[in-house]
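ok so for the tutorial part 2 we go from a plain amino acid sequence to predicted structure tokens. step 1 is just haveing the sequence, like this:
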Amino acid sequence: MVHHRLGIEGDLFWRASQNLYGGYEPYRPIFYSFNAIWAPQLTKNLTAEVLAGIGGEDLRFYGIQNYNPLSGFTNYTSSNHFLGDIGGGIRAYIWHSAFLRPEVRLYLINNNAEFSSGRVLRYGVTLGYSFGR
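step 2 — the prediction. this is what the tokens look like for a chain of 133 residues:
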């Protein structure tokens, strides 16, 4: 947090296993974003988190031999896209500084021509620990 309940947040995530694009070509999306976050305290053990920011998507299509003079040979080719994201969650402290956080994020991807939509919805639950709560 930079000022009271306002801060800066960044994240990086990718699909753990490859999926099939068009039923035949393996691919894996990688998302990264840099966000402003507002975290008002609701009660002693509950904190809301609201965030928005910008980032990028790197779609990696596997099975294609690719050469880059800087990195050499790779077994994938990439398609990169700019994105904006918005999301939020509720941080519930369950024991001292340990917390559970259900969250949801909406990624709005610019020029996502590989898919029929430029929107990606991600949701999940985090088990975490806060230092200096």
